[in-house]
Structure formats: structure tokens, C-alpha cells
Known about the structure:
The structure holds two protein chains of two kinds. Chain A starts with 5 loop residues before the first helix and ends with a helix. Helix content of chain A is 82%, strand content 0%. Chain A has a single domain, classed as Up-down Bundle (3 helical TM bundles of succinate and fumarate reductases), CATH 1.20.1300. By secondary structure, chain A is an all-alpha fold. Chain B is mostly helical. Chain B has a single domain (18-126), classed as Fumarate reductase/succinate dehydrogenase, transmembrane subunit (3 helical TM bundles of succinate and fumarate reductases). Helices cover 81% and strands 0% of the residues of chain B. Chain B has five helices and no strands. Chain B has helices spanning 2-5, 20-51, 53-64, 66-93, 100-126. The radius of gyration of chain B is 20 Å and the shape is elongated. Classes of the chains: A mainly alpha, B mainly alpha. The A-B interface holds A 5-6, 27, 30-31, 33-34, 37-38, 41, 44-45, 48-49, 52, 55-56, 59, 68, 72, 75-76, 79-80, 82-83, 86, 111, 114-115, 117-119, 121-122, 126 and B 1, 3-4, 29, 32-33, 35-36, 39-40, 42-43, 46-47, 49-51, 53, 56-57, 76, 79-80, 83, 86-87, 89-90, 93, 117, 121, 124-125.
Amino acid sequence: MSMRTPLGRARGLGSAKSGVGHFWLQRVTAIGLIPLTLWFAFSCVHLSGLDYAAAKIWMAKPVNATLMILAVVISLWHGVIGVQVVIEDYVHSPAAKWTGLIGIRLLGAFLAMYVIVAVSKVAFGG
Amino acid sequence: MSSTRNRPMSPHLMVYRLPPIAFLSVSHRGTGVVLAIGLMFVACWLGSLATGAQAYATTQWLLGTIIGKLGMFGFTFCLFYHLCHGIRHLLWDIGCGYELPQVRLANLASVAISGALTVAVWIAALA
């Protein structure tokens, strides 16, 4: 058995290199979501007063379609990496943890693509 | 490992009444999880708009029920709370807001502003 302390063994080996990637992505998506969230809330209030035809016309405007896709897709991205941390912190059984970690990514990818297709279909006049 | 065996245990979280800042901090996580679940409903609602008039009418009806309205109200508050407290986290990241008076002010502000924005949005939506 080594007589060295855990710190002594780790010292000098350098960082894990990719350690701050997740941290940065969480912050960058958060900054982007500040204006997008305010726009989304404002838009939902506006849409609540519209019927189906008027809502489609509103969503078909390029700026609205673009911002709606950005708001939802960046929210999903921010949400997936956020829920990842919650799972890593509180789910300790390996089977449940990995099912959760892989599941949220697949679900997030599906929902992002679904929203892109749905909003694009309305925007392109489908 | 002998080097770690006799170290003191950290006090268990559940033994203490959480101070306000700790409660607000864990609420940031909680509201984040609620919002992630809510995003599934947002996706369904956008999908129904693309599917057709009947599908859109169904989602509008579901959102108009008392459960739908309560859900949307909760989602609105979680959204604004996570937004306000998230800005606070970004300020913490750049090293601001750690003095006690600032902490107390930001505790109050994050709850008050998110509450006010929630009420404002619902007054605007129902008016």
C-alpha cells in the first residue's frame, strides 16, 4: 500500500481537461435564456387571446418562429444538463442513474427535433 | 482507506432548519426540474398547433381546465423564480452578492420580483 496521501498522488497530474465544459454551457445557455424567457412569457400572454388561425399567422412570422425555436431548444438544452446534475447528485444506484442520464438526453433530443419540425411546419405554411 | 477512516462526518442536512438562502437555493433546483417537466407540455402545445385545428382545440381545452390553469400558474411562477434566482447565480459566478446585507436583499428581491411578474402576466392574460 502506498504511504502517499490522495492529494499527494493527484498533485501534478493536471486537471481533467473537460471539467469546465458543462459549467460553461450551463452559464452560456442561462445568459441566452434571460431575454428569450421574457419574450416567451410575453408571447404566451399574446397567444392566449388568439384563436387557432390567428395563432398560426403569428407563429408563421419569421421572427416569432425563430425565437420560439430558440427559446424552447435552448431551454431543453439548459434543462437536460441541469437535470443531469440533479440525477448525479441524488440518484446513487448505477442502473437508475445511467438510465436517467441517457433517458433525459434522448428525450431532450426528441423534444427539440419535434418542436423544430412543428414550428417550421407552421412557419412554412403547412 | 486508513487516511479517511477517522475524519469527522459532515452534519446531516435534514437535522437543521434550512436558513432562507439555503431554502431558496434548493428551490432553484426544484423549480428547474418543474420547468423541465413543463417543457414537455410546451412541446405538446406547439405540436398541436402544427397538427391541426382539432388538436389545438383539445390542448386549449386541457389548458383551460382548473388543473391546466393551476399547472400554468405554477409553471409561470417557477419560470420567473428560476429566471430571477438564476441571474443571482450568474452574479455570484462573477463574485458579486456575497455580503450579508446583499444576500438578504437578494433573497427578498428574487421572491418579490418573481411573484410580481407572475401576477402581472396573469392579469395581462386574463384581462
